[in-house]
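Field log, afternoon session.

UNIT: design team B
ACTIVITY: writing a sequence onto a fixed backbone
BACKBONE:
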């Protein structure tokens, strides 16, 4: 299937999930993450979920990061330039939803992308080769290109991988891991 078809398929699958299923699966994903050898790093970039899109609830991962005393980074999106600015998440960070219902920091302490060690990436779909499908704007590809070469890229998904995504582009950046509620896939 191509990316457009996969977006439609997985948006439909997500729409069918109940609130309880999202919470249970999100907690299971956080527990799967504990098995990875990634916890010696310092800066962890995480997305705050768009609840209206039924994304993985990253609150459980945030609790793990806080418990391990890690530096947490969240982003603000610029839809005119398809870029993201990254901010340290602190007790004083004020969050506001943008017009697309993405929770974002209003402002704060900016963190350059080349300091980030681990990036948790929202997914609609992915394949067994580590290719991923998001909403199609290219925010994460642009962001990941500015990260250091050894940044660890971890996709979070409620669903199993596709065998293959047909229309992969040369500028698409692959995942290192994909974590689901039932398995962790090293790619």
């Amino acid at each position: 299937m191509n990316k457009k078809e996969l977006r439609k398929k997985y948006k439909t699958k997500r729409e069918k999930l109940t609130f309880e299923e999202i919470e249970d699966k999100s907690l299971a994903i956080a527990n799967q993450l504990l098995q990875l050898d990634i916890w010696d790093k310092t800066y962890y970039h995480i997305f705050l979920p768009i609840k209206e899109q039924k994304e993985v609830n990253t609150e459980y991962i945030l609790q793990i990061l806080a418990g391990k005393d890690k530096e947490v980074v969240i982003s603000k999106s610029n839809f005119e330039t398809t870029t993201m600015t990254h901010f340290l998440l602190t007790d004083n960070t004020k969050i506001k939803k943008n017009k697309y219902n993405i929770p974002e920091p209003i402002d704060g302490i900016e963190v350059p992308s080349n300091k980030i060690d681990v990036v948790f990436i929202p997914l609609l779909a992915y394949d067994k080769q580590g290719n991923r499908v998001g909403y199609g704007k290219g925010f994460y590809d642009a962001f990941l290109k500015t990260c250091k070469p050894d940044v660890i890229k971890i996709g979070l998904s409620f669903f199993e991988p596709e065998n293959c995504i047909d229309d992969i582009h040369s500028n698409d950046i692959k995942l290192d891991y994909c974590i689901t509620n039932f398995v962790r896939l090293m790619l």
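LOG NOTE: The first strand starts at residue 43 and ends at 45.
NEXT ACTIVITY: expression trials, pending approval
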